[in-house]
Amino acid sequence: METKIVKITDPRDTKITEMGEIIRNGGLVSFPTETVYGLGANAFDEKAVLSVFVAKNRPADNPLIVHLADISELETVARDIPDAAYKLFREFSPGPLTIILKKKDTVPDVVSAGLDTVAVRIPSHPIAQALIRAAGVPIAAPSSNLSGRPSPTRAEHVIEDMKGRIPAIIDGGACSVGVESTVIELTTGTVNILRPGGITKSDLGAVLENVTVDRHVTEMVTDGETPKSPGMKYKHYAPDAEVTVLVGDTKTTAAEIKQLLNGEKGAVCGVMCYDGFAFDCETVLYMGEDNKTYAERLFDALRQCDALGVKKVFAQFSEDENYGLAVRNRLFKAAAGRVIIL
Ligand code: TXA
Ligand code: MG
């Protein structure tokens, strides 16, 4: 399939109308959001949504997020919406927050992978906003990577994974948050974080009391367990390179990485670290001064390691409950258990 790649920086660009039409008519369009690039389909079109699963090789039991332009559209896809959802959407939307709600029958079962709930998000990126409005329908969209690969935060990443597999890609530049939206479920009296992201635990805590982090955000899902969100059980974000995460204060982890590099003479090694450190190896990728910039650069860094032929990556990481939780969640999955706590 020929993939049209269109550069759009202005949401008023008339090419948005054409992209919206592709979606409305059952085609797929990859588009930028403030978190990562999405692979969009008309959420009301069962066939179109099925083709999303095919294009990205996604397991059929992993549901998609439905993207709306405005809070006023919530009732077109969800029912029995609790006050807490309105309260949180009013505070954080448009933005990187996804809430699990009860699904209306208007949304085909393929979107929710058979669950009776639907994940809803109102993205803030101007191109995403313009695209949803131009399509005139809610857009079901997972991240626009091949299943198992790091999520795309630049159009080049999408081209790498999706060229030849979908009709169109909108190149709208780099995504600013860099990790996917925060996914929450609302149980009576609590907000439970199923996937940490751009809206942090303390952001949520400022609006509603009792914010909890689901056990499977930090613990592996073991055989026989059914996690709250199907995505939790998949090993995502894996680059080809072997990733080892070193957790602790930055001085200690930097010293340990130097030791480990000494023992790796001959292998092509890379380091992901905070600013201000130097290492003797082929590739040093700086993740900025804190976990906010770490989140923004993380997926790009993992893809760069592969592009540069790095075989072993040592990632320096200091924990915190906000952006740190989002970085930890992705980094630990990329490391598939190779975590050294110092
Ligand atoms: O920032 C984002 O959320 C990006 C952009 C494109 O909006 N999208 C994204 O989609 O990350 P995806 O498909 O890669 O991740 C969606 C996550 C998965 O872990 C999935 O299991 C979970 O949301 N999810 C979707 N619907 C759900 C539901 N009804 N109940 C529980 N989890 C659900
Ligand atoms: Mg994804």
Shape: globular
Residue runs with pLDDT of under 50 for 5 or more positions: none
Predict the CATH topology of the largest domain. DHBP synthase
| CATH top-level class of the largest domain | Alpha Beta
The CATH architecture of the largest domain comes to Alpha-Beta Complex
Structural class category:
alpha/beta
CATH superfamily caption of the largest domain: DHBP synthase
Number of domains: 2
**What is the subunit organization of this protein?**
single chain
Radius of gyration: 20 Å
Instruction: Tell me the number of helical segments per DSSP (H or I, 4 or more residues long).
Output: 11
Calculate the mean pLDDT score and round it: 95
The rounded distance between the terminal residues' Cα atoms is 49 Å
Bound ligands, each once: threonylcarbamoyladenylate, magnesium ion
Largest sheet: 12 strands, mixed
SSE pattern, N- to C-terminal: EHEEHEEHEHEHEHEEEHEHEHEEHEHE
Number of strands: 17
The proportion of strand residues reads: 15-25%
Give the fraction of residues assigned to helices.
25-40%
